[in-house]
Amino acid sequence: MRQRLKKTLPRLLLLFTVSGCSQLRTIFTAVRPVERLVPQVISVRPHDPSAFTEGLIYEGGKLYESTGRNGQSTLREVDPESGAVLRNTDLSPDVFGEGLAMVGDDLIQLTWKSGVGYRYSLDTFEQISTFPYEAEGWGICYDGSHLYTSDGSPFITQRDTETLTAIQQIEVIYNDQPIPQINELECVGDSIYANVWHTDFILRIDKASGRVTAIINASGLITPEQRASMEGEAVLNGIAYVPESDSFLVTGKLWSWMFEVKFV
Predict the structure, then answer these.
(1) Long-range contacts: 73-78, Cβ < 8 Å, 24+?
(2) 230: Cα within 13 Å, side-chain hemisphere
(3) What mean pLDDT is reported for the chain?
(4) Long-range CB pairs of 131-138, under 8 A, 24+ apart, other chains included
(5) Distance CA 102, CA 128 (A)
(6) Cα(224)–Cα(170) distance, integer angstroms
(7) Is residue 192 within 8 Å of residue 156, measured between CB atoms?
(8) Residue 259 reports pLDDT greater than 60
(9) For residue 9, what pLDDT band results from cuts at 50, 70 and 90?
């Protein structure tokens, strides 16, 4: 999810490499009884290539983004068409910004290892409060009732919207195997869409059971030449649902492009 040391992972990940995750790719590309989807590109839009994207939200025609890296972490409002940054709040240089969710008129931003999260006014971008956060912050989304967070493990945690107290953990399972490296999240109906860190795959997950219901192979979004020109951490990350068109905005860390897509 970021420039970080390897974590202690379940046995499934012990043979994976940070650069390739080749075993994950083998698992996801094998023939399994789940839906196989790819992004059908509707439009290609500019994206700030300096943005280390950690969270992405589309709401009411506006796009909000959380970016990471110490000394570069921000909360920003972005024009969804031009990619221009309309509003920006810098985080403290010692804080690594992470996932982003919207609850009512508030924006909630996680941090990676600082043990704290931030709540902002959507209207003013002013920080309303902070809250303690005991886990590593990765992804977060809101389904209208609860928040759901990831921490790089195979577990998604359902949380209270006010206190972020953990309510229950949901293990992400595919082919009877737990899938780690669950990253950026987007809640849509009964499903959670999740990036899998350092892969080109997005998972659609049943939020009640944790079962993977679809695997989306997004490797075709950028060309081999574009991929070769980017640094190793410039990986797929960022999913925002656009209800007006039943489509998604998808981008990556340090990508120059954001894609409006439908999963077909």
Answers:
(1) 73/97, 73/111, 75/100, 75/107, 75/109, 75/118, 75/120, 75/125, 76/51, 77/125, 78/48
(2) 20
(3) 90
(4) 131/163, 131/164, 133/164, 136/112, 137/98, 137/99, 137/110, 137/111, 137/112, 137/113, 138/1, 138/98, 138/99, 138/110, 138/112, 138/182, 138/183, 138/184
(5) 14
(6) 35
(7) yes
(8) yes
(9) very low
| Tokens 């196989």 belong to residue | 36
Task: Name the residue type at position 125.
Answer: F
What are the angstrom distances between the C-alpha of 224 and each of 42, 106, 229, 260?
Answer: 20, 39, 9, 20
Coil/strand/helix, residue 40? strand
Identity at 20, one-letter amino acid code: G
What's the burial of 116, exposed, middle or buried (CB within 10 Å: 0-12/13-18/19+)? middle
Residue 237 has pLDDT above 80, yes or no: yes
Higher pLDDT, 239 or 31: 239
| Per-residue exposure over 211-226, b if at least 16 CB sit within 10 Å of its own CB, e if not | ebebbbbbeebbeeee
Reported as a single tens digit per residue, the pLDDT across 206-225 is 999 999 999 999 999 999 89
Task: Please give the share of the chain, as a percent, with pLDDT higher than 70.
Answer: 88
Q: How far apart are CA 59 and CA 68, in angstroms?
A: 21
The residue with tokens 């972005």 is: 78
Per-residue pLDDT tens digits for 55-74: 999 999 999 999 999 999 99
